[in-house]
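HUMAN:
Just now I want nothing more than another pair of eyes on a protein record. I would be glad if you read both lines and explained how they fit together. I have put the entry right below:
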Amino acid sequence: MQQCHQFSLDRIFGRFLSIRSTRPLCSAVLVTFSVLSACTATADTRQISLDSLSPTAEHRQATEVISYLMQQYHYSRVSIDDELSDQIFDRFLDLLDRQKTFFLASDIQEFEKYRLGFDDALNKAQLNPVFEIFKRFRARVEERSEFAQQLLTGEFDFTIDENYTFNREDSQWLQTQKSADELWRKRVKNDVLNLRLAERTTEELTKTLQERYARMARRISQLSANEVFQTFVNAYTLSVEPHTSYFSPRSSENFKINMSLSLEGIGAALRTENEYTVVQNVITGGPAAMSEKIGAEDRIIGVGEGESKEIVDVVSWPLSDVVDLIRGPKGSTIRLRILPADALEGAPPTVITLVRDKIKLEEQAAKSSVVDVLRNGETQRFGVIDLPTFYLDSAAMAQGQPDFRSTTRDVQRLVKELTSATDGVDGIIIDLRGNGGGSLFEATQLTGLFIKSGPIVQIRNSSGEIDAEEDSDPSVAYSGPLAVLVDRNSASASEIFAAAIQDYGRGVVVGEPTFGKGTVQTVAPLDNEGKLGQLKITMAKFFRVNGGSTQHRGVTPDVLFPTALDSDAQGERGLDNALAWSDVAAIDFDSWSKSKPDYTYLQPLHESRYRASDSFTLLIEELEAQRVARGQRDISLVEEIRQKENLEQNADREKRRELYRRAFGASSGDDEEGDEPAVADIILEEAANVLNDIIDHPVQSKP
């Protein structure tokens, strides 16, 4: 059986150079494996019988194929043994009960006999233990649901000095039934208090929470054997590497649907975290981005259709169900109840209104603007090319259409417009903030606009073979001062471009350390009929022309901005089992100049500016507030204390917002209709200042 699959997969993987690199932010949204938070619930309310929760012949067949592919084609080629089994065991329990609020320590002790047996589950397709564990999990969820609903019939004393630990990822398993009851008593009390502080009546909050807890059990009871199997296989793939994942047959169909509909709705990529639906990022050109009312790390806790329908509580909902609720026809109105990124647990939510629309593809395309910098009484003009993604109309190109759309073509046109004007620009900034990647071909071609010719990136497959993507065109579209602006969400193709510009000494890279996704994935069907599902597998790795990888470390800017808080925990560096940084031999290339520029003198110039900038100070304070909110683990259950904390937090947020407005010359009276005044992009302005430093000061060179 393995040989019959080997031919087609050799054919697929042999063409890895032509495969587009998977965007990491999309991966995070479409591949979320917690059974509690992201498995697709059945469309009806039918409960799956316990007797049907057992491995099938298809599961055993899929296990054999997946195990073979992972060991033969995954970049790491990790053997399935006791060491890996130990990791899979912990990962499977984590995917089922990440917050350790359902299983008891006695359950885990009973399951210990399987800890070193999950390698047999994969090598011999012995899957019964997987379903035995899940059935116990389902029973525990039903117990907690009933207990929580019973607690709602009583009353709580909100003057007792006690705290609730809502983030238990690093906690021990619950030791006894009594300790589980105590944890859930505090959880329900906290849920009631949250809704009380949101000014819900007793009747309203009781109904909301009864539905929430009942839905929690109903959702788990509707998970099929296929979904249990999918969770187990992903415990295996995640124990190897975070971008490899399995889609069951039904999830494969949903994956295709999600991809085809990804440009409809509000334009936001979502993930699940601690029972919340969290905004991963907003998509340029979508309603969310255009509104500027919702951003990355905001938590969606309620969704309402239209202007007047009731906002439905979506805390602890599966991600797929929340997405279905948010998605709707173009032109329709939706209201979202959100907790801002910097809001502490228990803070009062806000409600925003959006009009659904399709992502405007022209907004995804490269576009230009100009930033003016005043220095010594003279104005320097810098062109900015904003690039949200690396795109290519490959179908039109294959058909030979002369006007096919591509990143490189659009940027080349914009560069010509910026430089050929009567008052042409003094330098150009390529803005890659939030650019998660796209076409590898376009990353190579775009780099070629700014260098003479040469290799752009090296790609090593799982067999150790290395090929290089090269620019063979010696023409240069622009040879003047160049800066590349990146942030923590600049990934994949963005990192290839930024790394090449840096390695060639062609321009200065500024901003935050990039995401660090230097791997390539492809999606391979496990059979021809679609009965076994699909495997998204990591099968190659990117390396810079200097031999270093963009994987894990990303690209470190020449000038590091102060917004890079907790950079070691962000991007690929924050993912479990991410492939490590490594290197290969450098490849011959001709640098832009004879000696590599030394940009170290730019950092102190930048720091002197941002330390004197009120706007930068406020921005850093806002990022720090978000960091504190993400790090919160417990919360007081005293109503008076919570009310005081909420008032203080709201006052701090309003103060930061008002100071931020004034930092750009806006008075408090400029906001008569409640709309925020337009403010400058201080990060972009600082990138222009850095480029101006290069013009003002001769660039030194490293030997």
About this structure: Residues 614-669 form one domain. The mean pLDDT is 84. The radius of gyration is 27 Å.
